[in-house]
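Protocol step 4 of 5: obtain the predicted structure for the target chain.
Materials: sequence only (see below). No template structures provided, no constraints applied. The aim of this step is simply to have a reference model before the mutagenesis design in step 5. Sequence pasted as it appears in the construct record:
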Amino acid sequence: MGPIDPTPTPVVTVKPLTLPSPGRGEDLQVRISAPVTGADLPIILFAHGFGSSLDSYAPLVDHWSSHGFVVVQATHLDSTRITLAENDPRKRQLWRYRVQDMKRILDDLGALEAAVPGLRGRVDHDRIVAAGHSFGGQTAGILVGLRVTDPQTGSAEDLSDPRIMASIQLATAGHGGAELTPFAHEHLPWLRAQDFSRITAPGLVVAGDDDNLPLSTRGPAWTTDPYTLSRGNKSLLTVFGGQHFLGGISGEHVTETTDESPDRVALVQQVTLAYLRHVTGIDHSDWTTAQPLLGAPHPLGRLESK
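Step 4 output (structure tokens):
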């Protein structure tokens, strides 16, 4: 794929913006990145992976924001910046607190927009995409209809939000049940039962074919479940040789990246941006171009849709 725009727009970033969060135990810290020019800018609500923070994922956030999107990030309670005691009751509900964080951001978008110099009046609140990596992919999925069985109540509520029009799930957990390892079953109980069939919004799933997470006995195919088990109007980008961080999407030279590859990161950047521009109605040409290019033999990945 060729570049969508050879001259990215400069970006302004403001952090941390603080949203009072009664009942959470910690105020919510938010970061916003936006292009310095442009109007009617769509929003990407991005959820980080387990342990990360609002300062992670610069390769994606900078790419998206410099090409016309307002990217909003939060630091969730599972971040290593927030140390919860081992017996903290919030630990069993981390997945739910994440969703509540995102809904709080959606409720306060006007105030957040006003806090960024020069951004007021340039944001389109009717075009919002939820995106996330790993644990954050589940968060994004829940916002468009993924049902998670609450390990404490045994019920699976609809926590989707009608303000979200589409999702991007990167290296995200699949179906639970007997496929979970004993470690995941015990320590990540929110993965025990996930129902992807309720997701009706458009979505892009990105999976690495070498992503051998120690959470499932199924190997890399587990992370394709958000695509294979969901309804239509979805696409799947399989990154060849991609491990959990897909070449380094969480940052350059970061310790958790085991498959550092600028080419893989560039592929994820280009395909996700083409999809974002397509699903928000900005331009369909780059997404159309990507379909046959990655449908044919390609050294970096394969793109398919249903």
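Step 4 remarks: Residues 51 and 79 are 4 Å apart (CA to CA). The mean pLDDT is 93.
Proceed to step 5.
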